[in-house]
Hints:
Blueprint: E1 2-6, H1 10-20, E2 26-31, E3 44-47, H2 52-63, E4 67-70, H3 77-90, E5 94-97, E6 110-113, H4 116-126, E7 130-133, E8 150-155, E9 167-171, H5 178-187, E10 192-196, H6 205-212, E11 217-220, E12 230-231, H7 234-243
Parallel strand pairs: 1-2, 1-4, 2-3, 4-5, 5-12, 6-11, 7-8, 7-10, 8-9, 10-11
NADP nicotinamide-adenine-dinucleotide phosphate (NAP) binds at residues 6-9, 30-32, 34, 49-52, 55-56, 72-73, 75-79, 82, 136.
Amino acid sequence: MKVLILGGTGEARRLAAVLAGRPGLEVVSSLAGRVRAPALPEGQVRIGGFGGVDGLEDYLRRSGIAAVVDATHPFAAVITESAVAAAERVGVPLLLLRRPGWVEGADDDWHWVRSLDEAASALHEIGGERVFLTTGRLGLAAFAGLDEHWFLVRSVDPPEPPTPKRMGLLLARGPFTLPGERALLTEHGIDVLVTKDSGGEATAAKLQAARELRIPVLIQARPAAPPVPTVTTVDAAVAALTTHGV
Ligand SMILES: NC(=O)c1ccc[n+]([C@@H]2O[C@H](COP(=O)([O-])OP(=O)(O)OC[C@H]3O[C@@H](n4cnc5c(N)ncnc54)[C@H](OP(=O)(O)O)[C@@H]3O)[C@@H](O)[C@H]2O)c1
């Protein structure tokens, strides 16, 4: 039996590691190919887009995929939409593995936005010159014209233009620790944190550090998840697949 994991997350790698050891099961993990040196999952790996819904449908049929797990990042909405449509056309079960979003606490000063453009506009209202931007290297265009701010941009690979004029770049991949995040915010004199509601432990320390230092957070809300069977942990995904005879 062959299972396709749509990956690019820590959960996807952990799921592949658990399933790869199962007798009679073939696991193929799929990565978009965005990161230059990706952390590779166990088992087979394919890299690159499928070519939209039609391409994914074709891939599922040709490869004899029996079940699909969409374990992509909560903000990777296009591939999730493709997975829902292609799995339905082919008639294979689709399971969504999606970590829960972060929850605002009483000591937080979070401001929810729907897009990075909205985050860029909201920076005016929040005030503060020095911004820690952890929204990924692909969304920087939204902040490119904001010359009154200085941005500390953290991403896995270097961003491409357009980028903010006044910017410091930190190339790093999580997980990040609380002492590290605390030091980073302090050393760079950060006034505002801009992030996405990615959820998960690996990158949550910045929120705790912002809470302690009373730094406001502009946080982009997730796109809506599709109405398909959904689990939030790797263990629950394994259990759900086992129920389907995987
Ligand atoms: N968005 C984030 O903030 C974020 C953060 C961390 C990791 N990631 C990971 O990075 C990848 C790309 O994210 P994105 O936000 O650019 O995705 P996206 O906007 O949903 O997808 C754009 C296109 O990239 C291809 N693609 C995306 N994920 C793929 C996968 N796992 N395997 C094969 N093709 C894939 C698809 O191309 P075709 O239409 O040609 O099939 C898709 O239409 C995802 O795998 C995601 O898990 C994303």
